[in-house]
Amino acid sequence: MKRKGIAMELIEKEIARLKEERRAVILAHYYVPDDVQRVADYVGDSFYLSKKAKETDAQTIVFAGVRFMGESAKILNPQKRVLMPDSTADCPMAHMVTAKAVEDMRRQYDDLAVVCYVNSTAEIKTHSDVCVTSSNAVHIVKKLPQRNIFFIPDKNLGHYVSTQVPEKHILCNDGYCPRHNGVRPDVVRACKEQHPKALFLVHPECPEEVLALADYIGSTAGIIEYAGKAGADEFIIGTEDGVMYELTKRYPEKTFYSVMEGRVCEDMKKVTLEKVLQCLRDGTGEITVSDEVREKALRSLDRMLELAE
Hints:
globular; single chain; 4-stranded parallel β-sheet; alpha/beta
């Protein structure tokens, strides 16, 4: 264990040196491994990281996350180099909607806005009117002039938005996050019985039957913030287990339980400290987006940043 600790310390020092030499910034999602979050300059959810990608004056962005995040950073920063520590790290849900499905829906409804969860491919963003994240989806959908909304690709987040914005006619695509969609209400009830004093905080990517059992529904960042403000000392967390690092770091006096063991995004966990070092050192995992795709996709991302204010 001591030898491993020394090795990790050397890797962290080399990352810090290369980061300064390359004028790089490391952005990390809450779901990547703890040691990667520890070396990052900014750790957050998709919306926060999109804003940081847009604001940074660094020449190189190392995005510790999955592919759609790196693509979004490149779309927002075409003049910067964007590197992914693991270029195979992807989001299954991002591929659960097709351009044909979007265009078919446009032909059926005249007064339609295509609202694209940021967890989607660059190509799908080119067919969308606005991107959203779980932290701003309700806010943005309320602002749209169209009554008909096609929400892609996540059916669970789309359904949650429909309950918060009943004045809109929201049609949901049939995609889902395998990790969140797999949370079962019977397991939630058993966990609540085991920890009767704990509040259940859940991500809206979970099924509606699970959301119905929640004390709070919100984005990863929202869950973290709520845990700090709530008077309770115990919480059951209904999202990917990587968020536990930030929760325990911020609130060491509180206790957190994972609603189900194994709520782990395997693609996020592909991002390791060694791979962060390698991409900084060798420039591997560079993200490229064609000018045509970038220009079309940028409109939906820019509109998200504009309407989220």
